Amino acid sequence: MTIFSLTKGKSPEIQVFPHLIEFFRKKIQQVQPSSMPMKESHGLKIMFVLEGKFEWSIDNQSVTVYPNDVVLVFPKQNFGGLKEMWDVGVVVSITISPRFFSEDGELILGEWSGISETEQRLIGKLFSLNKKPIIQNFKQLGEVLQKIENELFINELGFKTRINHLLDELLIITARQLSKQDNQRRDFPQSFQKLDQILRENLAHPWTVEEMAVIMGLGTTAFTEKVKSYSGFSPLNYLINLRISEAIRMLKSSTISLTNIALDTGFYSSQHFSTTFKKLTGYTPGHFRKPPNP
């Protein structure tokens, strides 16, 4: 087993990958106090446990991991040992620096990635909604990390392209596994309640069926069928009804302009809002308008 530590700005092996902050395999044979203090993550960190039991803290959330488990640490999250020290064992870690990653899941990887902008946004959204940073028994990810290591140190023709493809694969399989794992923990009604809450809190977002399906951990066809069966609406019609319901509440309880209400609830113009509103309710938005104060 090769032990290595590559760091941006110090290791020539990753100098051609400006989006790689760190890549290492660490073997800890004895506990040393203060060896793993809490630090803010400067990138997307993916850690894979090969041997041992580790107790870590991510933004004050304690996690315990075992061999073949994966831990995700997102940019700006505080991460370190639960007792600020490394436990005995072996771990592989890679840290990727996306061009942009926001708390609400807006993800831009950079020109190196072959993942489409739409799929990057879906992956980012799924990561941001993830409340459980552990993926249990995810041996497949360890295999991809091993391939990245092999390409780095063998350094054959096309290794740069191959490694970037493997980094894409790493993110894609992680997002898929998160989606599957989250869906397995809940039955559909519970999942649908979660989706409903997310939609209500982000009505201005230009939701697509694909994005909603990702949150539910389903393919678009299966997701659409389940939503229709459960709610009686297609996903987009369900979303429109949520938007109209919130618009009625805002019309009755505020003096916000129709244009701002339209934009806040996800319509692209006041005209689109008014047309859809009348079609679904039979009334114009003004019918529900809060009367001015005397």
Distance between the first and last residues' Cα: 79 Å
**Major sheet characteristics:** 6 strands, antiparallel
Our count of helices gives: 9
Number of strands: 12
The CATH homologous superfamily of the largest domain corresponds to Jelly Rolls
String of helices and strands: EEEEEEEEEEEHEHHHHHHHH
- Rounded average pLDDT: 89
Helix content: 40-55%
Low-confidence stretches: none
Query: What is the overall silhouette?
Result: elongated
The count of domains is 2
CATH class of the largest domain, named Mainly Beta
The CATH topology of the largest domain corresponds to Jelly Rolls
Approximately what portion of the residues adopt beta-strand conformation?
A: 15-25%
Protein model, in words:
This protein has helices at residues 117-129, 139-154, 159-184, 188-201, 209-216, 220-231, 235-253, 258-264, 270-281; strands at residues 4-7, 20-28, 39-40, 44-52, 54-58, 61-65, 70-73, 78-81, 89-96, 100-101, 107-108, 134-135. The protein has 294 residues and is an alpha+beta fold. It folds into two domains: 4-184, Sandwich (Jelly Rolls), CATH 2.60.120; 186-294, Arc Repressor Mutant, subunit A (Orthogonal Bundle). The protein has a six-stranded antiparallel beta sheet with strand order 1-2-9-4-7-12, with helices on one face. It has a four-stranded antiparallel beta sheet with strand order 3-8-5-6, with no helix packed on it. Strands 10-11 form a two-stranded antiparallel sheet. The longest helix is centred in the middle third of the chain and has 26 residues, at 159-184. The protein is elongated. It starts with a strand and ends in a 13-residue tail after the last helix.
